[in-house]
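Lecture notes, unit on binding sites. The following record was shown on slide 14. It pairs a sequence with flavin mononucleotide.
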Amino acid sequence: MPHLLTLCGSLRQGSSNRALLQAAAQLAPPGLHLKHYEGISELPLFNPDLSDTPPPLVQALHAAVDAADGLLIACPEYARGIPGAFKNALDWLVASQQFPGKPVALFNASPRASDAQAALRLVLRTMSAHLVEQASVTVNLLAKGMTAADIVADGQVAEVVGAALRAFELEILLGEKVDASLAGLRGG
Ligand SMILES: Cc1cc2nc3c(=O)[nH]c(=O)nc-3n(C[C@H](O)[C@H](O)[C@H](O)COP(=O)(O)O)c2cc1C
C-alpha cells in the first residue's frame, strides 16, 4: 500500500496547514496511508559541512523521505516567502539521494499565499522533485480556526482534498507500473 509522508511548514499549535494534513489522513482513499513527519522544529540549522555525516535527526528525516512513496506538503506564507524552519528542512534534503524524482504534492491552506507557493515550486523543481500538479490544491482555511474534524465535515473542502489524494495515489501507482515495466525491459 503506498504511503505519503506529510510535512507541515508551520510550527504553530493551531496551524491551519497542520489541520489540513490531519484531515487529509482521514479523507485518504483506503489504499493510501498518510504518516506525519514531526521533526521539523528539532532539526539543526543546515550546514553543508555536515552533509557527508548528517546528524542523527537529519538521518531520520532522510530515512523517512526514502521510505515514503510521496511527500504531501502544506506550508504557509511568511513575508511572501517560505517559512525559515521549513526551508531549513528542505535544505537538508537538497543533496540527499532520496529526493530526486520523489512525487510531491502541495496543499495550500490560503488563497492569498501565492508567493510562497511559487517559491516552493521553484525550490522543489530545483531539487528535482516530481511535482504532482493534479494533486496540488488550494483551499481557503485562512483565519477560520477550523480543526481537522471541521475540515472533514465541510463537504466542499473534503471533496477537493479527497480528489487530490485520489489523483496523487493514481500518479504513484502509475509511476510504480512504469518503473516495473522498465525493470522488466532491462531484465529481458
Ligand atoms: C510572520 C508572519 C508573516 C506572514 N506573512 C504573510 C504573507 O506574506 N502573506 C500571506 O498571505 N500571509 C502571511 N502571513 C499569514 C499566514 O500565512 C497565515 O496566518 C497562515 O494561516 C499561517 O499558517 P498556519 O495557520 O498553518 O500557521 C504571515 C504570518 C506570520 C506569522
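Take-home: The chain is about 45% helix and 15% strand.
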